[in-house]
Design brief:
The structure is a single chain. The protein has 162 residues and is of the alpha/beta class. The protein has helices spanning 7-22, 61-64, 80-88, 103-112, 147-151; strands at residues 26-29, 51-54, 71-73, 92-93, 95-98, 117-120, 135-136. It has a three-stranded mixed sheet, with helices on one face. A two-stranded antiparallel ribbon has the order 4-7. α2 (61-64) links the parallel β2 and β3 (71-73). The longest helix is centred in the N-terminal third of the chain and has 16 residues, at 7-22. It is globular, with a radius of gyration of 20 Å. The N and C termini lie far apart (63 Å).
Length: 162
């Protein structure tokens, strides 16, 4: 696990874990549960352990916001419809993961998720020739391959009368 970018970033990520604990969630492992052991040369860095949170309410900021740190919330669900509704209830939609050996389920769920990227049985595997970008409050437009041309191009019109 690499370091977070700054002390402020580390404290922000830690604040989510503190909020989750205050809301009654369980921290299964990671921050505040396990000891972080770093070699001397890394002890001045902004490291934290990957952290797993359970027993957390859907309304928690940990479930509604993009934490951008090594934190995941694991919550049970009873049906595809329930989990899709819960996933789509947040204002963000950069990426999602679907874990299943049922290819039909993967296609059904991925199609209904309001997310710019859907990884299946993996995470953060990126083919640079495919579009990258989110939905809702997670960005506008796509970048990558042909989808970058318009995104990174500023059109200018010049008219000359002579």
């Amino acid at each position: 696990m690499g370091a977070l970018i700054s002390k402020a970033h580390l404290e922000k990520v830690r604040s989510y874990i503190k909020k989750a604990r205050a809301e009654g969630a369980q921290i299964l492992c990671g921050e505040g549960v396990d000891k972080l052991s770093l070699p001397p040369r890394n002890q001045g860095g902004y490291f934290m352990l990957p952290t797993v949170i359970t027993d957390i309410k859907d309304e928690s900021c940990c479930m509604k916001e993009e934490i951008f740190g090594p934190v995941t919330c694991v919550v049970p669900f009873d049906s595809e419809e329930e989990v899709i509704k819960r996933a789509n209830s947040v204002k963000y939609g950069l990426a999602a993961t679907v874990w299943s050996s049922n290819v039909g389920r993967v296609h059904r769920v991925a199609k209904k998720l309001q997310s710019g990227l859907v990884w299946t049985n993996c995470w953060l595997i990126r083919e640079l020739n495919l579009p990258f970008g989110g939905m809702k409050s997670s960005g506008v437009g796509r970048e990558g391959a042909k989808d970058s041309y318009e995104f990174f191009t500023e059109v200018k019109t010049i008219t000359i009368k002579h």
